[in-house]
Please model this.
Amino acid sequence: MKKAFIKMNEGKDYLSLGNLFNSIKKNSTNKLTSIQTEIFCTLFNVNDISSKTVNNYCIGYRAISMDYKKIYYDYQKLYNDNENILLPVVTNIVSILDEVIYTEDDNAIKIVNSSKRLSKVIDNLINIAKTDASIKEEYLNKIINYYENKDLYNAFVLILFYTILENEQPLANYETNIDIKSKELAEYLQINLQEGVSYINSLKILAKRNNMYALAELGSLEYSGLITGKVDYDTCFNYYLKAAKKNHPKASWMVANLIYYKKISGYSTEFAYEYIEKAIKLGSIAAINTLGNFYYNGFTPDNKKDIEKALECYTKAADLGYVYAYNNLGRYYEKIDEEKALNYFKLSADNNESWALNKLGEIYRSKNDNQKAFFYYQKSIEAPVLEKYYYGYYNLAKYFYLTKNDIVDIDKEKAIKYLNIALDNGVTKAKEELERIDHEF
Model:
């Protein structure tokens, strides 16, 4: 199994940060490679950065990390009240383009808006944006309008916001051994794409015909409690097992997963091990990570732990971009190598994984960096509902909306709302805070 990474920072159909860098280099007086680092330091207000980091973000495979995004989230909020907040940054970009040191004292806005080199950079990026299917037409038209009205500053700022905050990594392709059953897939897609009030019943009809895609989908819906309103692990398992016997990768993984987490009884470790190996052979990356859990906790036919094999599995899954493997590696290294652990948590957070975002909030709060802590807690609760880690609500309520700080004002109503959300989703500690509010406020 091999992941075919897609570079988001090359080609002509992504308004990416890498293409922004390339356009600045192309139109600058200085064409040296080192200019790339200079651009990075200018954009993100850092004094020094490793060439590896710059290469990852500018010519490599990774989107910009959450730490750097935070800088521009803050800029974006300030920009709404003060349009010129990024003028020093853009002025320095023009300085790089011209190899002349400009300052705000030099009537910076005039210098920026009259820069022929910056105009060429923006023109080039607009042409790229026109081929980028992900950018909204309204947003692109706003950039074009600024550009055509010689407002290069605001045009460039909007491009910065898009390339840093909005542009996402294209989906990667994988070489797998997935057994595609064309007729069954066509039947499943037909009812999926024509979804109506009879969608569940249509799935059940296909499941009775042993359609593996319908079986797996029903297993997923039962696992999430979306059919009857409550989770039914027995029914879920039976659907997944039938699909797994027909070589469905996710279903094979879930059969093993349900046994491992004791959601189902009556099946042996050997049975789970058989299906986790099958899932891996069929191309499931999640199964590689779960096999790591098997080894880490001794859930193997010989009942022996093998930390080395567990780390091999986590690393392999992480290399394929599986965020929960980043989390597992971060947890392993947390007491061994703090910096390494932090990097793994950041990799997961960069993919908007809710647990990792909350974890970083905890780490930065322990370091008394409340601005970053609040940012990461807030991002953790913005995750999709089925992926959300509800301690984010608890932490925001306890450490910010109920505590005097420089980030947000005390907000009892919001705190109570967040604590109730946390409590309703299994965060029992929230009950203590709710009782304290009743007593103290």
